[in-house]
Amino acid sequence: MSTYTTRLIGSELVAERTMAFHFEKPADFVFRAGQAIDLALPTVQEDGEAARHAFSLVSAPHEARLSIATRLRGSAYKEGLRALAPGAAVDIDGPFGSLTLHKDAARDAVMVAGGIGITPFVSILRQAAQLRVARQLVLVYSNRRAENAAFLDELLALARDTPGLRVIPTLTQADAVPPGWTGRSGRVDGALLVGLAATAPIYYLAGPPAFVEAIQADLCRHGADEDDIRSEGFYGY
Predict the structure, then answer these.
(1) Least buried of 17, 69, 170, 193, by fewest C-beta within 10 Å?
(2) What CATH fold (topology level) applies to the domain 2-96?
(3) What confidence tens digit (pLDDT) does each residue in 97-108 have?
(4) Share of the chain above pLDDT 90, in %
(5) Any residues with CB less than 8 A from the CB of 123 and at least 6 apart, and which?
């Protein structure tokens, strides 16, 4: 893992209280879709050093910039990130992480995202669409409300244009389902997930730790092999 200095290109709101930040991509920075970086903010100090936190990359390897996305929670770090001006320099360490798409094209993939856990899957699906990956890819994307669903329109467009890719959005707050909603409503469970692929798939889970742990346990109760489940918990800060 190496350290790079890069600069902010710009930022944008991608969902309610959720922003994407776009950085220049160092010339020798190489990563796999689904991997992450540590981002150090020189304007925010923790224990006398630049505060740093991990982010999955939203951008795909073929893109010319590096992008992350995060919920804004009012912490000193998040406020410092939001306050960055275009051109501001930051240090990144990476890439790291193993939540990357398996190489066995004979096995399908079922991805389950809770909230901002969508970020590694945006990278994976952008890359899969670019490469026309020859396998079935299913994404189940769970949010409380539609306003929380970052990148949903883009993901649905990718599914329309990419053979073998299916995106299933679901909302868990029953009284917040908007008129005309065409996705699911209700919580994600193992019974739903085990029926989504024709063959025994590899499962990928990302989101709040309690969400990930509950889905993993329910998958196992419904017959999924624990060795076929890969997961990553996203902690708020």
Answers:
(1) 17
(2) Elongation Factor Tu (Ef-tu); domain 3 (2.40.30)
(3) 999 999 888 899
(4) 86
(5) 33, 34, 35, 56, 57, 58, 59, 60, 61
